[in-house]
Amino acid sequence: MALQLWETLKEAIIAYTGLSPSTFFTFLALLFAVYYVISGLFGSTEPHPRPRAFEEQMEPLPAPVQVGEITAEELKAYDGKDPKKPLLMAIKGQIYDVSQSRMFYGPGGPYALFAGKDASRALAKMSFEDKDLTGDVAGLGPFELEALQDWEYKFMSKYVKVGTVKTQVPVTEGESVGEPSESTADKPSESTAGDADKPAEDGPSESAAVKSEETPSSVEEHKE
């Protein structure tokens, strides 16, 4: 039985490789020896403690701190340049703590320019231009708005919301401070002038009436 298997194996080696059995097994032995030498030079059987030691040295991330409502200028202070401050980023006016993805949004990361800003427009257009680093989404197309919505869902599910960006309402010309002050200042002056004129106009008439009443009586007294 064993001889039959050996004969069958020899025929298969010759048929598929064209080599004699002795040459075939010699070639296999050489391949094994080369593999052993290469693995000994470049490989190591010892475990690699570096990743574990590196993880032990890494300090755990602090809990996200709520910043409340801040301006876009104040948000720039959380762009990751100060390691003591959290790394923040805003989408559609909502601020998220992205400190856990510092490798992407921190200094040197591929999306570092989005940190410390409301990058809604840039994310919707997948743009890295400075002019698109704004929360203004006016004029975006339906596909861009859909992409922005996907980004928002991703941030809502992965990061913690810590605040909002304060919106600054522009002051129009009609709402300027100078015009209301003039109108309000004119009205009291008119009423004051009117009130001042009334006694002046009424004064002579009242005094004249008093004199007219007093004069006859005084004349009669002199006659008596």
Can you offer a commentary on this structure?
With 224 residues, the protein is an alpha+beta fold. Among the domains are: 2-45, no CATH class; 68-165, Flavocytochrome B2, Chain A, domain 1, CATH 3.10.120. Helices cover 55% and strands 8% of the residues. It contains eight helices and four strands. It has helices spanning 2-17, 21-42, 50-57, 72-75, 102-105, 120-125, 142-158, 178-223; strands at residues 68-70, 88-91, 94-97, 160-165. The protein has a four-stranded mixed beta sheet with strand order 1-4-3-2. It is elongated, with a radius of gyration of 46 Å. The relative contact order is 0.08.
Record the SSE blueprint.
Elements: H1 2-17, H2 21-42, H3 50-57, E1 68-70, H4 72-75, E2 88-91, E3 94-97, H5 102-105, H6 120-125, H7 142-158, E4 160-165, H8 178-223
Parallel strand pairs: 1-4
Antiparallel strand pairs: 2-3, 3-4
